[in-house]
Amino acid sequence: xxRTALIVDDSVSIRQLVSFTLREAxxxxxxxxxxxxxxxKLDDGRVDLIITDLNMPRMDGIAFIRNLRSRPSSKxxxxxxxxxxxxxxxxxxxxxxxATGWIxxxxxxGKLLEVIGRVLP
Amino acid sequence: MEFDISRFRxxxxxxxxxxxxxxxxxxxxxxQGGGDAESLNAIFRxxxxxxxxxxxxxxxDIAKFTHALETLLEGMRAGRIEPTAARAALLLRSVDVxxxxxxxxxTGGPPPAGVEESAAQLVxxxxxxWAPNAPAVARVDDSAARPYRIRFVPAPEIFLQGMDPVLVLxxxxxxxxxxxxxxxxxxxxxxxxxxxxxxxxxxDLRLRSEKSAExxxxxxxxxxxxxxxxxxxxxxxxxxxAPSVRAPVRDSxxxxxxxxxxxxLVDLVGELVIAQSMAAEILNNFTAxxxxxxxxxxxxxxxxxRELQERVMGVRMLPIGSVFSRFPRLVHDLAEATGKRIVLExxxxxxxxxxxxxESLGDPxxxxxxxxxxxxLEPPEERRAAGKPEQGAIRLHAFHQGGNxxxxxxxxxxxxxxxxxxxxxxxxxxxxxxxxxSEEQIHAMLFEPGFSTAEQVSSISGRGVGMDVVKRxxxxxxxxxxxxxxxxxxxxxRIKLPLTLAILDGxxxxxxxxxxxxxxxxILESVRPTAAQLNSMAGQGExxxxxxxxxxxxxxxxxxxxxxxxxxxxxxxxxxxxxxxxRLALLVDELLGQQQVVIKSLESNFRxxxxxxxxxxxxxxxxxLILDVAGLAQMARNARGVIDR
Lengths: 121, 645
What we know:
The structure holds two protein chains of two kinds. Helices cover 44% and strands 23% of the residues of chain A. By secondary structure, chain A is an alpha/beta fold. Chain A has a five-stranded parallel beta sheet, with helices on both faces. In chain A, helix 1 links the parallel strand 1 (3-8) and strand 2. The radius of gyration of chain A is 13 Å and the shape is globular. Chain B folds into five domains: 5-133, CATH 1.20.120.160; 145-238, 2-Layer Sandwich (Alpha-Beta Plaits); 259-319; 321-498, Histidine kinase-like ATPase, C-terminal domain (Heat Shock Protein 90); 503-644, Roll (SH3 type barrels), CATH 2.30.30.40. Chain B contains 21 helices and 22 strands. The longest helix of chain B has 27 residues, at 5-31. The A-B interface holds A 69, 75-79, 95, 98-102, 117-121 and B 159-164, 166-168, 170-171, 219, 221-222, 225.
């Protein structure tokens, strides 16, 4: 496959779960603990997919997504946000910022791959 | 004339069903080992015909399926594939599927389940080692699959959200079978103005899927913001442009009869047999005193025979409601399309008519209703201005009158404009400038073929589209059609039909030694002319002046080549008949009376004879020919060598 995904979440357990699932599916995974770190990691090269939490210290998910869309290298990259059922307004905000889609927490690994299949060719 | 493809569609279905029946019969022979090369050829030809015609009529699924059938048959016919009993059995099952496909196409319903699988089986069966239990390659159990219409116009900035609409389409592809996909390019700007970051496209597709509409909507979850997403289960909704909402599946070669009706027939036949054996018994031991009992037995037989006749005719009868039932939908659709408010009132739906008549009535009535909506009824504002309720009314009314059934289609619209029709008729050469014509005659002009071919006439006169077709169809059923109208109050078209096509009300007449029958509906009146009424006109031959109007005089004895002593019209009788709005006078020796006659086809027993629609057997056992007024008129024109306008 040779595809790379960036997973941005301050929760290590979520990051591990997502990373594990993605690796199983053949992705190379880059991890970051918040938006700022995520942007730094992106400086090293393009990725095929970005999965980000919304509530994070330093730079939250919304600002991170906005930032991604303003950069030529990630302007069209699919971005999935990790949300909870109660965050309907956040979801809207994320979409407005340029998110491609969302995954509602808690999620099953299979569901994650299904959603990824929706946004990645 | 409006091009009415539904007429031909019906023919297509009839043909296709006949072909299917032929295939079935030949396949059965094949399966039982009795078939030969000619059977295979016949089956192949049937499949080939259906394939060709179905494609023409836009029934692509039928064309696709028959193509698979045809391919297998072609191989068998050419000797490449062995015509085994198993293959015959498979083909038989395929004929059943084909029939279901035809029925679905006819009713506009969804295609039957398992078509793809059957088609796949037909492909697999081409392999030499095919065994009947081998699963088909494309085994799709789509029994629960339903068709959906899906429209997807993504938000223009969809790419800026990291999304590609193609992914959505791919997901739909995974959710079922995309049967149709159209790209909407209407928003695509000229290249110079095209912004590559903007999505200008939209998609319309037809998807067969087992998923619910909700599940399919979920496919669009990530892209529905700012997008237009429509997911609708497809209902069989015929396009408005289709001339008629298709009738329920009809099959002209078979009749569904309630068991009650059949039981009654059986009872009657039983009674008849008893009465007959009683009569035979009386005859066997006949004495003078038995005469009265014989008479009684005989009158009993007569009673049963009459009742049997009535009931057997009744078996062919269908309530006219079966054709009326399609019109509420038609009116609804037409109202939507024209923005008019319309109420459809129907009465007399239970009136029974011969099955063939009922089935043939659909198209003419559809024409009449469309005309009434298109041209008769005014738009709401015009109606209000005229002091009428905004909602226009269309009425369909059927009732018995004498031995006929009358079907009236009327509207309360603006009515016909006789002056305009007259002007148009003069323009088209149907009427001389100074020729006097009653309002009735002018209205009848609308049935002239010349009138309906002119599109613009319909918008001027408010009438005319396909009216000649209506008239021809009705006359083809030995019926008659007339139109009446009051300006501002509406128009009414009256169709008079015989109860049955098998029995005709006829006028018996004599020419020389021969007895002929004229259908009563065609006859206007009969007169004995005075010498002053008879005349000869240049280019027209003999005429008789009736109320100032010269009518062509047709001598039946000359036309039919029957010797007679009555060659002087003042000694014979003139029967005035009407054909396509034109009157002519037929000279006959005398009238013998009126009688119901049973029509026997001449064509199927002998051959087609010009001027004759059929024959019948008279009470005295002699055969008599039933004359065809249209045919006679044509013969008379030919005989005069006049090219009729």
